[in-house]
């Protein structure tokens, strides 16, 4: 890759990280404003706005940025088009702002409809870029399958989301809106986030830990079980809603996740790098939060079948565990594995072997990251207990921790982005 292309890619990726950090901060503020609504029904204007800020502005934007940098590395090729990526980002972010605003005031009119079209087109350009990048590689592998399939699930999620937006004003969908909302949510969580995270982590975790064992057979099992469970869930939920078969479908998904966690554990136990750094501690915390969310899932199904209002409260707990817990913890850690590496490549890679240059881990503030881990762990303990016992006080204290986490995270991202290269042998690096 030429220096000019590398610089363009760096600007593209860093812009995604900065916009995602801003979205994270905005989400934390919105959560504080809407804290008293968190114990109500999840189909609430402010909660819909927060959910889309979390899923699209926070998680998806940072995944887009990481994919543009890491997919070519993982597949040992080049990104198909940087221009297409910028176009995707522009449309996606404009659409996101107006979609979130429309949900917040709940005005499902022309602004929400145009915003959803912008988002869909932005996602189409992203998926096109991913598929065309992957097609440049002759030898297919399971990591590639995970990432391309996840992109297709994202596209399917966005298409259903678009249909639901238009369904607000021009009802045409043949089933209840909440039924489609469940399908839309699980396509996004299971198809997009879960598969993408599985594929990327399967490659990155052994690389970061220098693992000697990478049992790919577990990844194959995970890939097929997750996709089968998602397809069964969509078909069954469309025709029959939540029913006793949903337990069986959830069990298939749980087996898939277990296979992936078995792969991760093999990588952890066979690691040559014995020291576990702070980003990896965040990652391990995210796995715990994912397991807790899976434990909640059967209770949602049970109460849903009993038509018990506890299904709503458990659904809120499940959703926040996934978005504010699992995915957020993972990003909080992996940002400081990927972003410093991206900055290091720009500033120092060409000087490898020419002097004493910093490592990627030297580009962020370790003290800030340590405090971030403590504060985020406090959030997990206080907020989720507050949500379970319906304590507004505990929920608000937890959200103060969440807002503090967001401020610490943004500050540390800025430390990396505005890093000043060191001088080596009287030369400005």
TrEMBL record:
The keyword Chloroplast belongs to this UniProt entry's keyword annotation: no
Keywords associated with the record: Membrane, Transmembrane, Transmembrane helix
InterPro entries in the cross-refs: Cyt_c_oxase-like_su1_sf (IPR036927)
Positions of transmembrane segments: 12-35, 55-74, 86-105, 111-134, 146-169, 189-209, 221-241, 247-269, 281-305, 317-336, 367-387, 393-418
SUPFAM superfamilies recorded: Cytochrome c oxidase subunit I-like (SSF81442)
The keyword Transferase appears for this protein: no
Identification of the protein by name: Cytochrome C and Quinol oxidase polypeptide I
